[in-house]
Amino acid sequence: MVLCNLRSTVFFVKLVAEMRSIELFIDHLLLQRRYSQRTAGIYRESIRDYFDYTAPGPNESAEEYLNVSRIRSFVAESLKSGIAPRTVNLKLSALSSYCNFLYKRGELKTNPVKKIRRPKEPKKIPGFYTTSAMDSFFKKEREEDDIFELRDKMLVYVLYATGMRRAEIVNLTQQGWDSTRLIFRVLGKGDKVREIPVPEPLARDFSQYLVKLKEFYGELPQNRVFLTDNGQPMYLSFVNKVVRRELSGIEGFSGKKSPHMLRHTFATHLLNNGADLNSIKEVLGHSSLAATQIYTHNSFEQLRKVFLTAHPRAKKGG
Known about the structure:
Layout: H1 2-31, H2 37-54, H3 62-65, H4 68-80, H5 85-104, H6 131-138, H7 147-162, H8 166-170, E1 177-178, E2 183-187, E3 193-197, H9 200-217, H10 236-247, H11 259-272, H12 277-284, H13 289-292, H14 295-310
Antiparallel strand pairs: 1-2, 2-3
Helix pairs in contact: 1-2, 2-5, 7-9, 7-10, 7-11, 11-14
C-alpha cells in the first residue's frame, strides 16, 4: 500500500513537472517569439494531446517519452481516428518546436520529430470571390452618415484592396497610414514590418473615414483605426462577424464569407491582371514564394474557363 502511494506521488510530481515544462515553453512563445495567444494556445493543446496519448511513466526521462517510435505511433493513431493530415502536421510542428526548446535546455540530445515523415496533405486550391461579386459589394446601398456602416464597408474594402491578415488589420493604427506616400505600414508575422501600396480611391475614402472616426470618438484607443461598437480596439472574431454580415445577401457571395477569402481574392485578382508572383509575395508578407504559388492554380482555372468558352474547338464537344 505504501509502495502504491509512493508510485502515485512520483507520478503526480512527474506530471506537474511536465505541465510546468509545457507552460515554460508557452511563455517562451509568447514573450520571446511574440506568438499570438491563439497560436500559443493551439501549440499547448497539440503538445498535451501527445502527452495524453503517450502517458509517460513516472520514471521516464524526456529522451524516453519523446522518441521516434512513440511519435510515429501518435501520428498513425491520429490519422486512424480521422484527424486530417493538415491537423496532424500542425500537431507535429508544435511538438517539434517543443523538442527544440527542450534541446536548448539540455533535456534532449536531438529533436526526434525531424526524423518523422509528415503525412501528405491533399492540395487545396484557395477559393476567391469574382470581380463581379466585389462590384456588387461596392454598389450596396448604405447610410453614409452611420459611422458603423462606414466602418464595416471600410474594413472589407481595406481587406480586399490590401490582402491584410485579420491580426494585421485589427492592429492597424493611425501611424500605420502614410497619406503622403499612399501606403499602409503593417506589423506581420514574426514581427516583420512591411509596406502595402494603396490605390488612390481607397486612400481618398480612408482619409475621409479617419476624419469621421475622430469626429465621432475623439480619442482613438491605442490609436487603432478599427473599433468595436463600444469604441474599443477591434478583435479577431469581430472582424469575422463584420465580414459575414457585409457579404451576406449579395449576389456572388454564396459560399464561405471570411477575411481570409478576401485575402485570397486580392492575390488572385492581382495575378489574373498581370501582377508577378514576387510582387504579390512581398505585399502578402509571405516568407517564401512557395506559399504564393498556390494562386497560380486559380489563375489556371480562370484561363481554362476562358478557353472552354472562347476556343471554337472547345465548344459543343469539338
